[in-house]
Design a protein that fits this description.
This is Carboxymuconolactone decarboxylase family protein. With 188 residues, this protein is mostly helical. 61% of the residues lie in helices and 0% in strands. Helix 4 packs antiparallel against helix 5 (80-92), helix 4 packs across helix 6 and helix 6 (114-127) packs across helix 7. The longest helix has 35 residues, at 135-169.
Length: 188
């Protein structure tokens, strides 16, 4: 149970109820971080607009690279909500979910390519406190992904650090997206 209660639809204003309906249509359930953010309407709207903009703009990298980096941050920081939601997103993208079980052994696992390993190491370096990003890492990512790809990857990892830390701090845990208990989002 979150440390700050969810705003139920019955107590939400008209705009928030509309946002809840749109979210439920897209994901099969109202996202709990959204229902906590609803306590601060302006931040809820700002966050929603930003998330939609990033979703539309982050198209340089292949989905497998984007989602792997985001998933790694979620597992590294221990956000069960982000792991749950991220797994559902990867399932809906048709990505290989079996390899996620091996992410902690990515250096030795045949499930990960050289690029995957580079992306995971970069996500780890950005997520560590203090950060351990090196000039060599960024140069290699730029060489492999292009400048726009390296910028997109960095932005997505930073954004997932924000999401994960928000959810973890407020006690928002797995919502059941991968078990089917909460989410009825159809496979595309």
């Amino acid at each position: 149970m979150p440390r700050i209660p969810l705003v139920p639809a019955a107590r939400a204003d008209r705009l928030t109820r509309w946002v809840y309906r749109v979210c439920a249509r897209k994901y099969g359930a109202v996202l709990e971080p959204l229902a906590v953010l609803a306590h601060h309407r302006k931040l809820m709207l700002a966050s929603g607009v930003a998330e939609l903009a990033v979703e539309k703009a982050a198209t340089v990298l292949p989905a497998a690279v984007r989602e792997l980096a985001v998933y790694r941050v979620a597992t590294a920081l221990g956000c069960s909500w982000c792991v749950d939601f991220g797994t559902m997103l990867q399932r809906n993208e048709g990505l290989d979910l079996d390899r996620l079980a091996e992410i902690d052994d990515y250096r030795n696992s045949a499930a990960f390519s050289e690029l995957d390993r580079l992306v995971i190491e970069y996500a780890d370096a950005m997520t560590a406190l203090p950060m351990r990003v090196t000039d060599e890492q960024v140069a290699e990512l730029e060489r492999r992904l292009g400048r726009a790809g390296a910028v997109e990857l960095t932005h997505l990892i930073a954004l997932e650090n924000q999401r994960t830390r928000f959810n973890h701090a407020l006690g928002i845990t797995a919502q059941g997206f991968t078990s089917g208990e909460a989410c009825r989002a159809p496979m595309p």
